[in-house]
Amino acid sequence: MKYLTIKKIAFGLFLAVYATNSVFAAQTATASKAIQGNAPVLRWEAGKTDHTVNVVIGSDAAGTSINEARNLKVGDYIVIKYDLYDVDGDLDNGTVAPTLKVFVKKPGETAWSAQRVTAETADGRISFKITDDFAGVTKIGFQLLETTQYGDPAVNQWLAVTDIWESTAPKQVAYDKNDETNHGALTDLGDDLHGPGHQDFGSITKGPVESSNVKIGIFKYDTRSNALADPLVDYSRSSTAIPKYGDVFKAIVWLEDNRGTTDKYDLNIDTDLSSNYKYEWKLTGTYQTVAAADVALTSAQGVSTSQGAPTDSNDLIRLGVEQPSSSSKHNNMYPSDYKAGAQGYKLKVSTK
Q1: Cβ of 13: how many Cβ atoms within 10 Å?
Q2: pLDDT tens digit string along 79-105?
Q3: Are residues 253 and 278 in the same domain?
Q4: Could you tell me if residue 146 is inside a domain?
């Protein structure tokens, strides 16, 4: 019995020694770095070019096509569509949408203005409605971060679009986790022109954003004081104001403030958008059986650009000549088949 007991003890010790020297007992871990995957990218559609998005102009947040040839207007939607591709399988899960920042520019402006929008989101889609805050805007840009909810790395690049109408791809701007205020904002890109990579605008054309609250009027202008002679008298709406040879008129475009009077220029509260547009003046109507020609009046017929307005805005016009003389009469400025020059016709202005 003693012999057998010794044998059992010896066998037990053998097993213990074998176990402690077995390869199954060895273990270790990577020293300090965790497993790293791949950065996510945005594409305007699955399988298409990396670092691009698709911008759609639609009648609703889903991007339903607008079959109408006109400018972008208040009430339309800008819809950003994308496919987030991550080779590791990391997902968006609503992470991309909050990174959207929208910027706008009006004619003559050199700096971008941040534009607050209310975004509506769905899988691979971010939409925002054009409001009156966009009225008169000619450039719309935005930036969006390529990012996922989880993963390492979970971010890639900022995609910066400086004009949705451009056909080029977005500018790729490096993400800086220590810069929580700028994020490679469009203001850093100067005059670089970068589009979204793909667009679906239907028949919508580029131009100042239109609004039913944007009005245009014709006002008498005092060239000595470089100001409106009377901001309360709009010759396009007044039933008593009479335009006369020698008068100078200025086109004014404004965004109505709902605190003011409807269809009337309230100088102190309405927003003057005049510098956002170019203008075209015409004579209209019929006098002595002769219809006014449907052609724009020219600088030789008194059209001029006021100080401070964009080049060739044509916001001013003088009826007739400044100082008639024996060789220069008011009527002579207008087509010879008119019976009495511009007399008998109405003055019309439109934006272009």
Answers
A1: 10
A2: 999 999 999 999 999 999 999 999 998
A3: yes
A4: yes
